[in-house]
């Protein structure tokens, strides 16, 4: 990590965000309009002056038609058939208390991926749209408890519970458990 708090992944992520914007032919203003993220925030994320939040990345992924894991895999090392624990990329959104481990990163030949998620007690993350409409998700709670709201229905999940869904609209992940929550998220692209 650099002394200013931004690490190499954030630097590569910022460069990839700038590349995607250019590939799609968007100005910062057009991207701001499409994503609902301010021009200044987009500019700072592209220059790696800030570490983007999960919510910001979700909005950009929706514009670009990709999952967050796909985007993050584009700035991480190529996935291997066996992904050792030490090689599983970890990304943290310090603002929300969300830690994401890419257990089985996306691969061009595969439609599914596995993500370990951890939320600190009181963490509350809202996504205004799925990164890809109709994205299939299976959420298996390993430790703690998680409240997931999807399509205006709230689901309370305890350890061992699994929620299966296709994501078409806003979702919200909340951790009311005092010890936090750890869960496995299986994502299958449509």
From TrEMBL:
UniProt key word Ligase: no
Domain of life: Bacteria
PROSITE patterns, per database record: HTH_CROC1
InterPro entries named in the record: Cro/C1-type_HTH, Lambda_DNA-bd_dom_sf, RmlC-like_jellyroll, RmlC_Cupin_sf, TransReg_Diox_bact_type
Domain HTH cro/C1-type as annotated: residue spans: 17-71
Record SUPFAM superfamilies: lambda repressor-like DNA-binding domains, RmlC-like cupins
Tagged with keyword DNA-binding: yes
Matching CDD domains: cupin_XRE_C, HTH_XRE
The entry's keywords: DNA-binding
Protein name: XRE family transcriptional regulator
Species name: Streptomyces coeruleorubidus
């Amino acid at each position: 990590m650099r002394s200013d708090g931004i690490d190499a992944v954030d630097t590569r992520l910022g460069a990839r965000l700038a590349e995607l914007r250019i590939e799609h032919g968007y100005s910062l203003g057009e991207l701001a309009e499409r994503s609902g993220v301010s021009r200044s925030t987009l500019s700072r994320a592209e220059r790696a002056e800030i570490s983007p939040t999960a919510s910001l990345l979700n909005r950009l992924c929706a514009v670009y038609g990709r999952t967050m894991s796909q985007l993050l895999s584009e700035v991480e090392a190529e996935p291997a058939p066996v992904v050792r624990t030490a090689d599983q990329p970890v990304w943290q959104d310090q603002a929300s208390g969300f830690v994401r481990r890419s257990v089985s990163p996306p691969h061009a030949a595969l439609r599914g991926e596995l993500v370990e998620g951890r939320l600190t007690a009181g963490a509350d993350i809202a996504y205004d749209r799925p990164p890809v409409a109709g994205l299939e998700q299976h959420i298996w709670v390993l430790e703690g408890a998680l409240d997931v709201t999807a399509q205006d229905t709230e689901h309370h999940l305890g350890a061992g519970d699994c929620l299966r869904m296709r994501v078409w609209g806003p979702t919200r992940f909340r951790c009311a458990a005092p010890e936090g929550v750890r869960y496995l998220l299986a994502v299958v692209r449509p």
